[in-house]
Design a protein that fits this description.
301 residues, alpha+beta, Glutamine Phosphoribosylpyrophosphate, subunit 1, domain 1, 7-stranded antiparallel beta sheet, 6-stranded antiparallel beta sheet
């Protein structure tokens, strides 16, 4: 369970101080969904920049310059890949030829190992499951987000920022709330409406907001002028289950040992808000790993 957040100042009406104020308030509100690491990506005249640290958002000091009109952010709750190794944190940089992009992910992917093997993707020191999305895009040599979304298995919503200040939302089963402020020419987003509202509590000067719908199976693009375009990807292989979310197999290959299985189970449980200690307690009370997995899906823990 991580959080996506960010803004688009397509009219250039916000000052650097205002943008940094929004980002700070949003990121601190986003700590509700992750405090292991915080990162942002944005473009300046020097190109695409990524600033991330293995720190909670309230310890970060954002200094986005005035010429940064689109900012894509992420707060992380680590499930795979140690947060202290900063390369494991979001956003991730990728490249298609000479053009770079940044990608952030909320969710957990379970077929990253099998995809890397089946598609002969290069080995990487990055341990995070999310990075497979970057590798799939790079292998296609095009920003084919539909292809990427149809290859990965698990829980996801992605954001992707290009060097042209195009921001993409690839909406799977994980939440996303996007609003538009016509008065100031600004879009602001976060993973949940609660986080978005908390982050914008003291930003009434943005004006009245309009909610922009983003549905599961949609790819929404907002360009540097604030224009929205939409496309879709096939979400038919996802099974609609409890919560109105999607149910999927936990693993793309059998764990090597029971201990590894339990460790993977704890990582997935963390995405539902449950601690490793809670899993250990259930095991001590006689629950099997299969029963715990079923409880996770049914949200009865």
């Amino acid at each position: 369970m991580c959080c996506l957040f960010g803004l688009i100042d397509y009219q250039g009406s916000l000052t650097a101080k205002q943008k940094n104020r929004i980002l700070r308030e949003l990121s601190i509100a986003a700590e509700e969904r992750g405090t292991d690491a915080t990162g942002i990506a944005y473009n300046t005249e020097r190109g695409l920049q990524v600033y991330k640290r293995p720190l909670p958002a309230h310890r970060m000091h954002f200094k986005v310059p005035a010429d940064a009109h689109v900012v894509m952010g992420h707060t992380r709750m680590a499930t795979q890949g140690r947060a202290k190794r900063n390369e494991n944190n979001h956003p991730f940089l990728g490249s298609i030829g000479r053009e770079r992009f940044a990608l952030a992910h909320n969710g957990v992917l379970y077929n990253d190992y099998s995809l890397r093997s089946a598609r002969h993707l290069p080995k990487t020191k990055i341990e995070t499951d999310s990075y497979i999305a970057v590798q799939l895009i790079e292998q296609q040599k095009a920003l084919d987000l539909r292809f990427m979304a149809e290859q990965v298995e698990g829980s996801f919503t992605f954001t992707v920022l290009t060097e042209r200040d195009e921001l993409y939302f690839v909406k799977g089963d994980n939440p996303l709330c996007l609003v538009h402020f016509p008065l100031t020419g600004t879009y602001v987003y976060a993973s949940t409406a609660e986080i978005l509202n908390a982050g914008l509590l003291h930003c009434g000067w943005l004006g009245k907001d309009e909610k922009i719908s983003v549905e599961c199976g949609e790819i929404v693009k907002i360009d540097r002028k604030g224009r929205i375009s939409r496309s879709t990807f096939d979400a038919g292989s996802l099974y609609l289950g409890h919560w109105g979310c999607y149910r999927y197999p936990l693993y793309d290959r059998p764990p090597r040992t029971e201990a590894q299985y339990i460790q993977d189970l704890k990582s997935v449980a963390a995405c539902y808000g449950y601690t490793g200690e809670m899993i250990d307690r259930l095991l001590r009370h006689g629950f099997t790993t299969d029963e715990i997995e079923e409880l996770l899906y049914e949200s009865e823990m």
